[in-house]
Amino acid sequence: MSSASPGQEPSRTHRLILVGVVLLISLALDLWTKQWVWDNLREGRALELIPRLFYLKFGFNTGSAFSLLRDESWARGFFIVVTFLALGYMAWLATKMPTAKAYGFFAIGLISAGAAGNLHDRFFRTMTVFIEGEGRVERHGVVDFLQVYLNYDTGNYWPIFNVADTSLVCGVALLLLYLHRHGEVPGPVAEKSAAEKS
Question: Please, is 163 exposed, middle or buried when counting C-beta atoms within 10 Å of its C-beta (0-12, 13-18, 19+)?
Fold first, then answer.
């Protein structure tokens, strides 16, 4: 994925471009799908993609993953702060990681896109929802729409999620794999160590 000569790591500029491309494509897909669902499925209609398994169904999550803290008024501010911190850490990591392996930067792009996609909703998506003890109130939240049934007959399904969530999960898994395999001994140090052992 790079024109670097043998023994020379690809430039950081190329890796940062990779992060940007992955981020923009993933973010665009997330925002487009959420807007389509908002316009077409908000009234409760569900689309069957794979019978008894996979559906598109509108959901509005005022909390985090698995609807944690969805009824707490302070949750939105908390998640916004956490998201900005995560994006800052991804930016820092992109400037510090060895550039030899592209998939670590691909992971950063996915994580950043997922975080930015849900951050967008926390700023710009609002609906009137019912909160226990408060009644019907206007709240910011995140659009979810991917519904996977674990057991269709009993109505048991995985919590509804979106493209941003998928990007986050895939990105974190890929980054953990990268850090497990390459995190302890970065680029030039690893080469030196290998040379000393030979």
Answer: buried
